[in-house]
Q: What sequence folds into this?
C-alpha cells in the first residue's frame, strides 16, 4: 500500500547575499494514511516551513511531493488549491477565526468553497456543533470565547469537511495545560477515526500523543 504522502528530496531556500539561506535540505519522508506524526526541533529548524509545504500553502520549493500518488510538484496552482480544499485541514496557534462571524458562520466558511447545497452545509455545521459540544456557542463571536473554546472552534472548522490530512502548528501554544490536554485528546480521537494528523510542537507531552517523531535541525532531518 502506498503512503498518503511521499516527499523525495524536498528543498527550500530564500535568496540572501552572498548565498541563499536554506530552510529545508533533502527532506525525504513517507507518511502513512492514518498516521499521527509529530515534527520537532529548535526554532528555525524548518518545522513550520515543512508543514506549509505539506499543506500546499508554500509553492516555492524543489523536489518531489506525492499526495495519494498524485504528483503535487507537477501541478498548477489551481490544481494544488483544489487538492488542498478537498483533502487538508489546518489548525494554527493563533486560531485564525474571523472576528466578525459567529461560531456557526466560521464553521461554514470552508464549506462555501465546495459545490454544496445550502441545506447540506447547514446540516454539516449542525453536525460539527454537536460533535464538538459547542452548540451553545453557535451564535457567539470569537471575542466572547475563551482561548480553549476558540481553538476548539478552529479544529471543528478545520475538520468539518472531513479532510484526510489534519495539520496543526503549535495547536496548544496559547492554551493553559488543561486546555492543551483536551485539544490533544481530541486530536487522538480524530486520528482513531481515521484522520491522518501531523503536528508541529515543542512539547514532549504533546509529542507523546503521536505515533512517531520526525526531528529537524538546521533544515535537515535527523536520523
A:
Amino acid at each position: 500500500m502506498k503512503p498518503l504522502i511521499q516527499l523525495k528530496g524536498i528543498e527550500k531556500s530564500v535568496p540572501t547575499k552572498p548565498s541563499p539561506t536554506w530552510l529545508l535540505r533533502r527532506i525525504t519522508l513517507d507518511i502513512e494514511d492514518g498516521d499521527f506524526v509529530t515534527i520537532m526541533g529548535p526554532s528555525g529548524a524548518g518545522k513550520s516551513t515543512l508543514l506549509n509545504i505539506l499543506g500546499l500553502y508554500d509553492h516555492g520549493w524543489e523536489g518531489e511531493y506525492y499526495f495519494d500518488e498524485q504528483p503535487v510538484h507537477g501541478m498548477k496552482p489551481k490544481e494544488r488549491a483544489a487538492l488542498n480544499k478537498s483533502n487538508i485541514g489546518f489548525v494554527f496557534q493563533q486560531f485564525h477565526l474571523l472576528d466578525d462571524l459567529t461560531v456557526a458562520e466560521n464553521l461554514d466558511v470552508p464549506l462555501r468553497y465546495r459545490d454544496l447545497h445550502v441545506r447540506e452545509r447547514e446540516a454539516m455545521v449542525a453536525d460539527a456543533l454537536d460533535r464538538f459540544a459547542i452548540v451553545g456557542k453557535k451564535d457567539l463571536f470569537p471575542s466572547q470565547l475563551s482561548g480553549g473554546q476558540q481553538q476548539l472552534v478552529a479544529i471543528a472548522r478545520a475538520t468539518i469537511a472531513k479532510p484526510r490530512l489534519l495539520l496543526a502548528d503549535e495547536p496548544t501554544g496559547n492554551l493553559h495545560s488543561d486546555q492543551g490536554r483536551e485539544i490533544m485528546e481530541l486530536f487522538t480521537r480524530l486520528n482513531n477515526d481515521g484522520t491522518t494528523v501531523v503536528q508541529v510542537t515543542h512539547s514532549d507531552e504533546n509529542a507523546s500523543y503521536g505515533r512517531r517523531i520526525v526531528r529537524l535541525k538546521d533544515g535537515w532531518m535527523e536520523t
In short: The radius of gyration is 18 Å.
